[in-house]
Recover the amino acids of this structure.
């Protein structure tokens, strides 16, 4: 079985054969996402800043943080404090709000800043163009699986058309970032030929009509990237992910199917992936912040094939989830179905 997946080094691939043919995922001078800079806050600072960034065509931005007070976090590029930012934001699946001529890109709605946040963003960084930013972030909300997390989606721009981004700044409107808050910037460019890629493959599993897709024990990493293409064998059943074999009621999530009203489920037995999309292939792209002492925060986006053929549109799913474990890192990932077996492929990459 060879299902498509988005490989962090190669882009969209048709399975392991392509990966091996070009040198094993990072070898052979093919380049990939490389860490350009990171800053881990020591506490007490109003900004978390990465600077002296290499000029890369694309950036991936990973950030996790808490603050000393409820305030708005914002993004600035090259420390530009002029009114040169605009954005469109949806919080918890609500109607878009728009802002123009801002002194920074608004990052979150104040109210949950004392709880952990997790963010994954992408920037198109061509110097002659306005810089476009796609961002997904979530907050833990009150601790425990009885409380669903919050989530936010952003499409923003910095209107500068003369400079590449060389500094990214997480800026607080008030208050300071707590110790351990972190900002990591990865870069990718078509001309890259390095082999020190940020993302390391931890597991690759596949199966046909099996009880579970299970990575077995993987190396504990702070950042996890999971991709899965799978379908239920039994019609009408859902599937999701469990961590470290935990099948208890220790998961909660907030999701939006096809852009409709948010669905929240708390004290659930898994991080749901295909919701009501039944027994057709679903592809899900997932990022996890995997710190042992904190609840594990999960951002995911999925697409389901729906009925075959171009006369039938696919389904989409966006969600934020959490595993309410605060004592161990994730070292095993497995699927769990409401009933029956599963067919598919799952790949996991990680980094510290």
């Amino acid at each position: 079985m060879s299902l498509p997946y988005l490989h962090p080094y190669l882009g969209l691939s048709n399975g392991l054969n392509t990966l091996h043919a070009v040198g094993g995922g990072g070898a052979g001078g093919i380049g990939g996402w490389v860490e350009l800079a990171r800053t881990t806050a020591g506490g007490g600072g109003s900004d978390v800043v990465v600077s002296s960034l290499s000029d890369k065509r694309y950036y991936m931005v990973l950030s996790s943080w808490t603050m000393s007070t409820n305030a708005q976090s914002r993004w600035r590029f090259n420390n530009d404090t002029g009114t040169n930012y605009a954005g469109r934001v949806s919080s918890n699946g609500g109607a878009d709000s728009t802002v123009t001529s801002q002194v920074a890109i608004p990052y979150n709605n104040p109210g949950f800043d004392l709880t952990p946040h997790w963010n994954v963003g992408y920037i198109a960084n061509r110097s002659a163009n306005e810089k476009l930013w796609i961002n997904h972030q979530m907050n833990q909300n009150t601790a425990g699986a009885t409380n669903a997390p919050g989530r936010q989606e952003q499409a923003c721009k910095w209107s500068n058309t003369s400079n590449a981004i060389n500094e990214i700044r997480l800026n607080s409107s008030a208050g300071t970032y707590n110790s351990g808050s972190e900002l990591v910037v990865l870069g990718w460019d078509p001309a890259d030929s390095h082999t020190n890629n940020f993302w390391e493959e931890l597991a690759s599993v596949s199966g046909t009509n099996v009880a579970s897709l299970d990575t077995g024990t993987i190396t504990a990493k702070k950042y996890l990237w999971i991709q899965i293409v799978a379908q239920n064998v039994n019609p009408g059943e859902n599937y999701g992910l469990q961590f470290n074999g935990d099948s208890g009621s220790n998961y909660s999530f907030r999701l939006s199917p096809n852009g409709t009203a948010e669905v929240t489920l708390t004290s659930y037995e898994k991080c749901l992936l295909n919701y009501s999309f039944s027994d057709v292939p679903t592809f899900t792209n997932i990022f996890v912040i995997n710190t042992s002492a904190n609840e594990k925060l999960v951002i995911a986006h999925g697409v389901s094939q729906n009925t075959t053929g171009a006369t039938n549109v696919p389904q989409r799913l966006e969600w934020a989830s959490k595993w309410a474990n605060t004592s161990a890192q994730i070292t095993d990932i497995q699927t769990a179905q409401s009933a029956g077996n599963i067919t598919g492929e799952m790949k996991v990459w990680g980094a510290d």
Summary: The CA atoms of residues 115 and 142 lie 7 Å apart. DSSP finds one helix and 25 strands in the chain. The radius of gyration is 20 Å. Residues 199-351 form a domain with the Jelly Rolls fold (CATH 2.60.120).
